[in-house]
Amino acid sequence: MQPKTFQKIDRFARDLPAEVHATVYDGSKSTSEKRYDVLWRDFPETADVLRETAGQIKQHTLEHLDQYLEQAEKSLTANGAQVHFAGDGDRANQIALELMQKHGAKKLVKSKSMVTEETHLVPFLEKNGIECVETDLGEFIVQIDNDHPSHIVKPIMHKNRRQIARSFEREGLGAYNDDPETITRRARVHLRKKYFEADVAVTGANFVSAESGRIVLVTNEGNARFCMAATKLHIAIVGIEKLVPRDKDLGLFLNLIGRSGTGQQLTVYTQFIAGPKRAEQPDGPEEMHVIFVDNKRTDVLASECREILRCIRCGACLNVCPVYRQASGHAYRSVYPGPVGAVLSPLLAADKFPELADLPKASSLCGACNEVCPVNIPIPDLLLRLRDKGKREGAKNAAAGTPPMGMYAMMASQPSAWKAAMKIGYAVNVTPQAMMNVVPAAQAWTSVRQLPKWRGGKFRDWMKKKESE
Amino acid sequence: MQTAMSDDRTQIFSRIKTALAPLPQRAALPNYARELPICRAHPEFSELWELFSHKAKQVNGTPLVGLATLGSWLHEKKQTHGYCDRALAERLRAMPEFEGITLETEFDRGRFDDFAFGITLAAGVIAETGSLILKDESTSARLGALAPWTHAAIVDPATIYPDTVTALENLGSDPSVIWATGPSKTADVEGILIEGVHGPGVQIVCLDA
Lengths: 469, 209
Known about the structure:
The complex is a heterodimer. Chain A is α/β, with parallel strands linked by helices. Chain A is built from 24 helices and ten strands. Chain B is built from five helices and twelve strands. Chain B has one domain (45-207): 3-Layer(aba) Sandwich (Rossmann fold), CATH 3.40.50. The chains are: A alpha/beta, B alpha/beta. Chain B: InterPro entries: FTHF_cligase-like_sf, LUD_dom, NagB/RpiA_transferase-like.
């Protein structure tokens, strides 16, 4: 009702079709409940110890990142992988393209990777004549619909089966049928051909062990495994924050990521990749490349919000978040939605920070995101730090929906003005609400809130009486 | 490309060092008990295989005991043509339960739809999670364990690891270690669980007792 004072994210929530809202709400709520049940069933006394320890390990790794990155580079090289570094997304894309061109590769199958969403790898490669196919079912549907993922783990949480069935019909994958099993089987048949035709597999990495150079990939569908069985060239594109010190630490992270993301004790496929295939193995990549990508992560590391780099992309904070459930992922207008996105996206946006400065405000600071986080990121604290940054930098989006506080600041710093205001305030009790809505500065609050009765100055009176007693 | 890339490397390391320099102190690597990530919330079993079976069934895996049982299972499901690891084929062909079942020892990717099942050798199983372990060293063909609708992994009773922590300690030097926990699955469409997305719709672990 108040477009003028709405934050951008509020407008998305307001305009979200009821059907999508219901899908997102039910999907995130049920996943969140499952996460809670499974984690606390399996670790009734130590669930929080697990989360806290995992958080400490990640924080330690980040604060020694130069050391661990160098160690990982050595271990990966020893495993027979070739390591590349890319300062930004464009460099990462360019390196990947050059590798493919060197191998005469024309067709690519890809498993889900958030960092390649950041770098816009697929549109870049397509422009350069490479056929790219997303193989995760959700990402495949996002791709054919020319859409964007709305969730880190469940990219099509915002779509229902009827929409998907229409897309499949349009793409010639069969007559309209909205049975989820039929949809899945059709994708299986279609993508199978793509795997066998492809020259190259592009994956991300969920974890990289600095100690052994093992890249760990987790999926449920088995698509990353298929990519790694059918093709001859493997390119892993990995954010530099994905490191963990030792293989032993993977025990904690693997036990947390499945439970946190989807309420599973372990994801169906957990792959530990340490270089190209063995010579006697007929299937799989003969060459492995790892591209470590910075893309503003070192800026985040230098910021007051470096804890956000602990994130293992499980999506638990999205599922539990009351704002995400109302607004859905596209409201965050960036690769990373939800509470993690409200911190990470404005930071990764760098000089475009002002455009996303409303995201840190889209929170009641209820703290649920922190409680569910498998690496215990203090997201509410980070949101406050970013609100502060937005205000200090005068970002317009950081102020949308907030009345100017200049008058308050003046009164609060001058006792006489304050005393006078306490008296004048009683006028509010006899002013009709409709009249107050006329004052633009007050509108942002008064239009959606009932004011309590003004009782200004009562505390001072009470205090004075107490003192004289 | 080489120069540009090494520039990127130098820059990233220098940016990390600059970012971390102002920190008054760095977070220490926590010490934690080896047992911390091990889940013990399950009924007591006297045998690890029983715990494995219990966990595998929870994720719709199919634990079987004895190769003969596998032969009967395949007959029952009318799956009579598939891939089999060369190291197992002779033994299975000699068994009466495998009579009438054709075992090919090469996985021909040109005829990937011809294989109803793939029989491979597991490198072990994890009791705590109901997972089977596949390694390049012991899995004769990655595709044979992945493309057919039914995958049957044969496991040696000496390679049942109690938990994920022990399994991690035994990753060895193999370039490809896979833990597969139940059949391939998705819940991407409206959160409804569907099995058999890209990988097997039936995941059998057969104890070679």
